[in-house]
Amino acid sequence: MQEVIEKLDRIEAAIAAPRREYLPVEGAAAFLGLSKQQLDLWRMKGGGPAFHKVGRKVLYAVADLREFMDSLRREALT
Predict the structure, then answer these.
(1) Could you read off the pLDDT of 22-75 as tens digits, one per residue?
(2) Which residues contact 26 (CB under 8 A, 6 or more apart)?
(3) Please, are residues 63 and 70 in contact by the beta-carbon 8 Å criterion?
(4) Which end of the chain is more exposed for a tag (fewer CB within 10 A), N or C?
């Protein structure tokens, strides 16, 4: 029973937490359904989503990730 209560507490805390506007590389890759290596490659060679460099840390804005995916959208030919 204690395990269930602890799980519910974690779920409630996650729901109450503010939405993250910036994600680290691993989080951004998971958000896009890509590998971390793919994002690393795009950062080095270009062609990927915009990113922010804060010291040594690389962060991706969720809005930029959504915009990047929207730019890749294609309609099926009929």
Answers:
(1) 999 999 999 999 999 999 999 999 999 999 999 999 999 999 999 999 999 999
(2) 36
(3) no
(4) C
Cα–Cα distances (Å) from 57 to 22, 25, 73, in that order, read 11, 9, 29
CA distances to 25, 43, 73, 78 from 39, rounded to whole Å, are 7, 6, 18, 33
Q: What is the DSSP letter of 56?
A: T
Task: Provide the residue range defining the domain that includes 33.
Answer: 19-78
- CATH (domain of 60): 1.10.10
